[in-house]
Amino acid sequence: MTTETDDGPGDTRAADGEALGPELFAERDGVRLCYQALGDPAWPTVLLVGGLGASMDWWPADLCVALSEGGRRVVRYDHRDTGRSTTGVAGEPAYTARDLLEDPLVILDDLDVDRAHLVGLSMGGGIAQEMAVEHPDRVASLTVMSTSPALDRRDDTALPGPAPELSGLWDGSATGPGEAAATEASVRADRLLTGGGHFDEARTRAIARRAVGRSAVPAAAANHAVVASGSPVRGALSEIRVPTLVVHGDRDPLFPGHGARLAAEIPGARLLVLHRTGHQVPPPQTWDRLLPALLAHTV
Q1: Tens-digit pLDDT profile for residues 84-106
Q2: Considering 85, 122, 141, 215, which one is annotated as catalytic?
Q3: pLDDT of 142-193, one tens digit each?
Q4: What are the contacts of 258-263 at 24+ separation with CB within 8 A?
Q5: 252 is known as an active-site residue
Q6: Where is the AB hydrolase-1 domain (predicted)?
Q7: Pick among 3.30.565.10, 3.40.50.1820, 2.40.50.140, 3.40.50.720: CATH of 2-297
Q8: What secondary structure does DSSP assign to 225-237, as a single string?
């Protein structure tokens, strides 16, 4: 494990002003994954798994602090090709979706954590579902947000598709050269994904600027959208045995209604619907419901 001091390039003061401590690095097979851990190691560990193209900056520091104040050790990390994790050439991912699935285990091993409470958003929710089937011994509970079934379902009825205005959102065509263009593209995408729900433009722009500034090649984040699948995960939602909480916004334009279908397929899963919320990290206006639910679920 590598630690960088708070007064150097490793100082990670998030966009909302909360310091979450130094950036740490877990390394395996030539790949470095950047992460942060907040809270007492003796507390239950909550591992936050971000969405497609998202560095850990998109898990707001004040949300991490609130979870930690509830007695949780909170860990967030940069996916490959984001933030300060290993980054390659834009448009040429040097890994597969299977590698993205295994990366959380690298973080947990570096922290000497046997089992963690997984909280996955969007693509991260898919990764968390797959981990619950592939590595059930490493998963204490599952929370999936703004996501869709990533495994086989009993119900083969087609799920509703995304809103037309999201077409081409992740193909990189809306991003011009330079950090300013990348920041504005992120803000535009986040605005669209809220589906007309809660949206704080100043907060979003600050996080986007921070995320872009920490990234060696901001355009490489789009590699997640074109990555090869790698060896498939064999399993079904009905095989998930850990306690599961499904969190979904009532205005999600990418996966409309998918949360209810997902909760119905996972044995014993509970569904929490957040009002005026789209496809996004649940905004502060929802935390009065979200935080108690998360803390009760991750004991």
Answers
A1: 999 999 999 999 999 999 999 99
A2: 122
A3: 999 999 999 999 998 999 999 999 987 876 555 556 899 999 999 999 999 9
A4: 258/147, 258/148, 258/149, 258/159, 258/160, 259/146, 259/147, 261/149, 261/153, 261/155, 261/159, 262/144, 262/147, 262/148, 262/149, 262/237
A5: yes
A6: 44-279
A7: 3.40.50.1820
A8: GT-B--SPP--BG
- Minimum mean pLDDT range among 26-30, 230-234, 278-282: 230-234
Catalytic-residue membership of 122 = yes
Token pair, residue 125, equals 């929710």
User: Rounded CA gap, 249 and 256, in Å?
Assistant: 8
What local confidence, expressed as pLDDT, does residue 20 receive?
86
Which one from 146, 252, 258, 297 is the annotated catalytic residue? 252
| pLDDT tens digits, one per residue of 187-219 | 999 999 999 999 999 999 999 999 999 999 999
Phi, psi dihedral angles at 96 (to 5 degrees) = -120, 175
The HSE-up count of residue 121 (CA atoms within 13 Å, CB side) is 24
Q: How many residues are listed for the chain in this entry?
A: 299
For residue 168, the model assigns a pLDDT of: 78
CB-based contact 259:237 (threshold 8 Å): no
Assess contact for 294 and 282: CB atoms under 8 A. Answer: no
**Catalytic annotation, pick one of 79, 224, 279, 297:** 279
Domain boundaries, the chain: 2-297
